[in-house]
Design brief:
Blueprint lengths: L3 E2 L2 H21 L5 E7 L3 H17 L2 E7 L5 H13 L5 E4 L9 H7 L11 H8 L9 H12 L8 E5 L6 H9 L6 E5 L6 H5 L4 E4 L17 E4 L3 E4 L7 E4 L12 E2 L6 H22 L1
Helix pairs in contact: 1-9, 2-9, 6-7, 6-9
Bound molecules: guanine.
């Protein structure tokens, strides 16, 4: 078996297409959707992600403001920026790129973002709504992008065994909630660093979402024949054969394509979906202002 490609790039393009009319409607009502992206420090991968987000805004005609703060900024400086953005009625979405430098309390800073502007869906109010099974709020972009991509490919999750590898605040935990929510209806197991015999648990699954940040850890013998495999990992690994000295690798080994029915590529899978869902959340936040 050679897996079909879960083409996140194509799915993201269709999500973006659907946003054009909604953005025009906001503009006609006098509201220009506006996203503010805050990045602290010099992490090269984070700068690449932030640039992709800003470029997506440009593509769609969403206004974006990119605020770049030095690595040695204090937590209270970042607080002040968030408070200023909360108070600015001309903008609808605030995203603070993770990870923040280690001297900052990332969760405390996320808590400060106004829940209506929390386009990442990381604020406790938005995550709390997700725990309650209310899916109409701001949903975290990567997990909701995975759900949208599965739906777009016509993959039915109802009654299926799903394994989420990883239990992070950004991906693993919300992903598990979305897969098990009413309407998706999968039976979900979270596999984490303390799980006994992770490989055997994973090998039972009809759907595997890998979000562990370990390059190519999920091998073919972790995967049931015919399973659906979504690779959330974006890892840089050294590769002297490349001019730049590194390549991107997912959490899933390429050999899995010989065993799975569906596999999302890296790059071109979950990455573009995360950005598309961020754009959708920003438009939704602007629509709330229009409706007020
Ligand atoms: N870092 C990696 N993924 C994300 C994301 O979805 N949002 C933010 N804010 N930071 C990230």
């Amino acid at each position: 078996m050679v897996a079909q490609r879960l083409d996140g790039k194509a799915c993201a393009a269709s999500v973006e297409d659907e946003l054009h009319d909604r953005i025009s409607a906001c503009r006609s009502a006098g509201v220009e959707p506006h996203l503010s992206v805050v990045i602290v420090g010099d992490d090269p991968a984070s700068h690449v992600y932030v640039n992709s987000k800003v470029k997506a805004c440009e593509r769609l005609g969403i206004k974006s403001t990119h605020i770049s703060l030095p690595e040695d900024s204090t937590e209270s400086e970042v607080r002040e920026v968030i408070q200023r953005l909360n108070d600015d009625t001309s903008l609808h979405g605030i995203l603070v790129q993770s990870p923040l430098p280690s001297h900052m309390d990332e969760e405390a800073l996320t808590d400060l973002i106004h829940p209506g502007k929390d386009v990442d869906g990381f604020h406790p109010e938005n995550l709390g709504r997700l725990v309650q099974g209310r899916l109409d709020g701001m949903l975290p972009c990567t997990p909701s992008g995975v759900m949208r991509m599965l739906q777009w490919a016509g993959i039915d999750l109802s009654g299926k065994q799903a394994v989420v590898l990883g239990r992070s605040r950004i991906v693993g935990n919300p992903q598990a909630l979305l897969l098990g929510a009413k309407g998706a209806d999968a039976t979900v197991t979270i596999v984490h660093s303390r799980t006994n015999n992770a490989q055997a648990v994973c090998a039972q699954a009809d759907i595997v979402v890998a979000a562990i940040g370990r390059p190519e850890m999920v091998r073919a013998d972790w995967i049931k024949s015919g399973a659906v495999v979504v690779d959330v990992g974006i890892n840089r690994v050294d590769d002297d054969s490349r001019e730049r000295g590194w390549r991107l690798a997912g959490d899933v080994h390429p050999e899995v394509a010989q065993k799975a029915a569906w596999l999302s590529p890296v790059p071109g899978g979950v990455g573009p979906m995360t950005i598309a869902m961020l754009m959708e959340n920003t438009v939704r936040a602007a629509e709330h202002v229009v409706a007020q």
